[in-house]
Amino acid sequence: MPSFFKKSILFTTVNVFIALFLIVWLISSPIAKYYLTPVLAQFNLELSDDTSIRYNLLMSKVSISDLAISKVENQQSDTVFSLEELVVKVTLFDLLFDEITLSEATFAQGIIKVDRNGDKLTIAGVTLPANNESTVEEKETPEKPFPYTIKMPLLSLTNFTIEVSKASTEQTKEKLHQLVFNTLTIEDLSANLTEQSAKITLDAEVDSTQLALTAQAGFVQQQGEVIANLAIDNYPLSKLSPYLEHITDLQGTLSLNSKQTINVGHEQITVHVSESNMTNSMMAFTQNNQHLSIDHVQQEFSNLKLALANLELTQLEGNSLLAINNVSVTQLNNEQKPVGDLLRVGSLAIDDISFHFIDQPIIKLPSILVNDIVGSQIKSADELATLPPITTIKQLAITDTAITPNDIAIDSILLDTVESDIIVNKDKVLINLVSAPSNSSEKSDAQAKTMDPKEENQSISAEDTTKSTKPFFFSLNKFELVNGSKTVVTDNSVEPIVTRTLFIDTLTLGSLNNKSDSPQETPFSIAGKSNKYANFKLDGTLDPFIAAPSYHVKGYLNELSLPAISSYVKEAAQLEIKTGQLSTNLDVKLIGEELDGNLALHLQGLETGIVDSHEAGSLIEQGALPLNMALGMLKDRNGAVELDVPVSGSTSDPQFGLHSILAIITQKAIMSATQDYLLTTFVPYANIVSVAITAGEFALKLRFDDLLYQVKQIEPSNEQKAYLDEFIALMQDKEDTKVTICAISVSEDVDVKAGQEITDKALIKQLKELGEQREHAFKDYIIKQGNINSSRLLLCTPKIDTDVDAQPRIALSV
């Protein structure tokens, strides 16, 4: 064949192929649009006219530009998917070797919209069927194995956005999330039915929060390893609100940096977190009318290894720490306004948390420190807002805690500096206690009452099933209160108002656990004082977890001023305790419900009177003489009453308690001391004391001359020094003598004219408070100057004298 024809045929063939490639390239876009249009129309979708879809036959490359798909509803169009550029290139030659190689895969500048409406999810305008929708069952056909290996050297996705929205009740769309892929690259992808591997790098923004992810994965026969690094910076927690039931007003941010390796085996999955740091800032949410806020939470993990085999934990080890600052739980009313803080915590720190697996998972916490605890503080706008909190604790320290699924063991719990304020109003309600709105509890009660019987039975059955599981054990080696506690009780429900301060100096508890039914006899000790002089100490053992719980208490209470409890007994007995002091020794055991023991009572200077008789020397006071006479019959030569009272019975029997005290009174009266003792004992101190028969009394009674005061005077003065010195000398000489101190105030102490009767309760309270100040100042002076034991000086309820010639004074008696 002549060379001319050869060249012509070759030239023609090349031109035909070029023409064919050009024709395919030219007609690929309109043909693709032609076939895509009816398919999209089934979903009310439209393809934009500017969309270009080209296929390069020569390079086996698909190029798409200006792609836009819109959803048409109610004659309105909304773009649900767009892509500025897409390039996919396939190497056809590799098909000969059972490989599909995407030598080029590029996606740039696109958006896809996802809508959620109830259980239905719409992606790019196509609604996916809900999980509960029935689908037509198809006959199973044996799947042919996929013979190809897919390879992709590089997939690049840039500036691509995914928007997630949901339909609201007003049929408007509420934006939930926005995920922006700044860059997403998948390198060295190779996948077939037996082996898969790839490297992923992601730089994205989730709801305007920076997200970075790198991952290297490789699998053979569904076994392999994933090495990943994840970083999230200040993700807004409010975006999670739609997925949390019964939680509102979720606020705060989340940051996470984590490096981990995941190994997937045939029957086991192992996760190794080499380093992880999670931080929450300014977190807050509301649930069931309670608002929780936390300023800062930080938790770190290091070298954490976790293994699961058949969904059961088989390995656990690693370390962690947790730090939380400024926690507040606030109670809200029905209008969602704050009532007060149920709990506030300044900081919580758990350092060096360790995880172990020895037969079962164990978490060890060497130290838990909770600082600046405040319990129940009113925050209302009214006068209650000034009330102190019920409890404040400087620090709670828990050491060496071990936690397993069925056990918690604690070495020691220490409470440091506890202060409490208990304030009761006239209706006997604790007014500084933050409580939930009343109607919420009523609603709960109503729901409980209307519960269907079947549901109730199911609930009981579930509860019984829970109870049948393994018991949970608890053990504690030591509990201790350090630096003491102070409790101030103010009771406005009685008249006069009672204010009492209880100090606990020491409180310890020994080893305690519920693992054994054998006796343990955990020791405890508590010691302290009440107000200024009353003191107590109780020691004993307790064993609350055995079949018949056992308790043993032995100790004493000394120098309790009885007028302080007069407010609680006067209504029932119609008698006031004018003066007196109680000391007692007790030794009591309670085993199961059987109580057995003994109380040794020592009453000093007990005198009573008719209720609300404030006038000194009032004749109405004589109405209490029969009881005073009986008490006088019991008094020994020092004016004290001593009683041994056996205590026995069953705590389930409402009649259990004290043996007949009347029999003891009669027996003691027969043995009353001789009446001439006082006459011979106090003659050397005749300048300040005298002995006479007191009207209505059984025996002779020692009487001190009154110590006169100036109007409104509180502290002892130089003019009273001679009296005070002789009184101190008497007390030092008669070491067994105890004296009752009773202040008597007059009208002029509160700027009221002498002789005018005082009925105003505020003035009566003011006069009594002035009298209490005089009594305490006198007692402090005698203790300090004479080194007299405080237990020998008894305080009484102050009295008032409104006679015209009355003078302020302190009356002393034995």
Summarize the structure.
This protein has 814 residues and is α+β, with helices and mostly antiparallel strands.
Summary tags:
814 residues, 60s Ribosomal Protein L30, Chain: A
Could you please describe the fold and organization of this structure?
This protein is an alpha+beta fold and 814 residues long. Among the domains are: 201 residues, no CATH class; 137 residues, 2-Layer Sandwich (60s Ribosomal Protein L30, Chain: A), CATH 3.30.1330.60. The chain contains nine helices and 37 strands. The strands form three sheets. It has a 30-stranded mixed sheet that branches. Strands 33, 34, 35, 36 and 37 form a five-stranded mixed sheet that branches. The protein has a two-stranded antiparallel ribbon with strand order 31-32. Strand 25 and strand 26 form a beta hairpin. Helix 5 crosses helix 6. It starts with a helix and ends with a strand.
Largest sheet: 30 strands, mixed
| Coarse shape | elongated
The oligomeric status of these chains comes to single chain
How many β-strand runs? Answer: 37
Q: Kindly provide the radius of gyration, computed on alpha-carbon positions and rounded to a whole number of angstroms.
A: 44 Å
Q: Which structural class do the helices and strands define?
A: alpha+beta
Q: State the low-pLDDT regions, or none.
A: 440-451, 459-463, 617-627, 654-680, 691-701
Distance between the termini: 153 Å
Mean pLDDT: 80
The level of helicity is 10-25%
Query: β content, as a range?
Result: over 45%
Number of helices: 9
Write the layout of secondary structure elements.
Elements: H1 3-41, E1 45-47, E2 52-56, E3 61-73, E4 76-91, E5 99-117, E6 120-123, E7 126-128, E8 149-167, E9 173-191, E10 195-206, E11 209-220, E12 223-236, E13 248-264, E14 268-287, E15 290-309, E16 312-332, E17 338-358, E18 360-378, E19 391-404, E20 407-424, H2 438-449, H3 453-467, E21 473-491, E22 498-509, E23 512-513, E24 522-530, E25 534-543, E26 550-561, H4 566-573, E27 575-591, E28 594-610, H5 625-634, E29 640-650, E30 657-658, H6 661-670, H7 677-681, E31 689-693, E32 700-704, E33 707-708, H8 721-733, E34 739-746, H9 761-786, E35 793-795, E36 799-801, E37 809-813
Parallel strand pairs: 5-8, 20-21, 34-35, 34-36
Antiparallel strand pairs: 1-3, 2-3, 3-4, 4-5, 5-6, 6-7, 8-9, 9-10, 10-11, 11-12, 12-13, 13-14, 14-15, 15-16, 16-17, 17-18, 18-19, 19-20, 21-22, 21-23, 22-24, 24-25, 25-26, 26-27, 27-28, 28-29, 29-30, 31-32, 33-37, 34-37
